[in-house]
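Cross-posting from the modeling subforum.

Setting up a comparison between two proteins and wanted a second pair of eyes on the formatting. Protein 1 (sequence, then structure tokens):
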Amino acid sequence: MPAPSLLVSLHDVSPRHAAAVDRILSEFHALGLPPAVLLVVPDFHGAWPLSDHPRFLGRLRELGGAGHELALHGYFHQELAQDRSASRGASAFLRRRFLTAGEGEFLSLPPHRERERLDRGLDMWDASGLGRPDGFVPPAWLHRPDLPATLWELGFSWTENHHGLIFRDRPPLKSPVITWASRDPLRRIGSRFFAPLALRAWRSEPLLRIAVHPHDWDHPVLAASIRTTIRSALARRTPLSGPLST
């Protein structure tokens, strides 16, 4: 029986978080992790376009060359007001309220807007010299059911949601995810209690994901929790590295 695996990803990779990205990747290396999956936002919150930050682009190319898999992570990351108005149902409200804080960019996008946003991301990605990404991960893992079909049409080979990995050419792979919420004290406390409980509850899962965000490192107690969780996971799991499409 194959050993259980671990997949670690860093979300919200953007010039906005350039210093934090390098710090976190240094910590990953010190913990013994292989190159991670880096989820890159082309224009974080509409204020940090990759095209305006050549030094950061150079760093991304270095990281890709070192084995880190660069995946597209939305376009703005933030859900725009006009997109939010397209879905006012109870389900969308609850997901906005409890699963994210206005960051579910693809939560309510209809297919034509999904494709438009994806095309914009790919255009900036190509213009930045990053090559074509194999993977796309919607911000906060929130999206409509039709998103994977749109991704396959555009040439992507994998995506993620809260439940696991979805592939174009092979069956989906169930994989629970441990992540941390940093936006208020209650969520920070809850995250610190959730992580070790989840690690024990999911110890028999073949693949476990750990997803971290730059703002997690603004809070030393969360950073400590992340380090402890990764160390504990590595004690019995084999860490994976990209590309995830293979």
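Protein 2 (same layout):
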Amino acid sequence: MNPRPLPFKQLTGISEKTVSIHHDKLYAGYVSKANEIADKLTKLTEEQLAAANQTYSDLRALKDGETFATNGVYLHEAYFDILGGDGKPAGKIVDRLAMDFGSFEKFQALFTACGMAARGWVVLCWDLHEQALRVYSGDAHNQGGVWGCLPLLALDVYEHAYFIDFGSDRKAYLEAWWKNLDWKKIDARFQKTA
């Protein structure tokens, strides 16, 4: 696994310093740890496999770390991949958001409220079971995700995503984040999954 480059040059209201630390250190760190864990999993001995149990074992620790690090990579990629736009909703996804949530404005209000309530992530997903758009929140990378759902829009609400620019004012960060969305990319993801 290799870190992906940023798909944009700069954002409106979110500083280059915040983006640099977030992407080049934190996200790249998840990529590095995911690779390290994958390597260690390939080197487990027969004794380590035989000692596997649900309380603690080398295998359990590595598998728990694997989901945390890998989801840290994937969620950050989903977060960065849809930034760099003008924030103006466009595409078939806007119609589907209105259908599934009552209106685009109702979706945006729900998603923003989830952004205020979550400790880690808010994700708009295409639910393969329901054949509908759903919003899920998670307090950690490996908590809150739903099997059978494909992420379309990911919002990082951990403090590292906004504290340098906004201090503890998460609401101001959310307002800036909405202004940077690239709805063409979000719509392209939607059209691939729905």
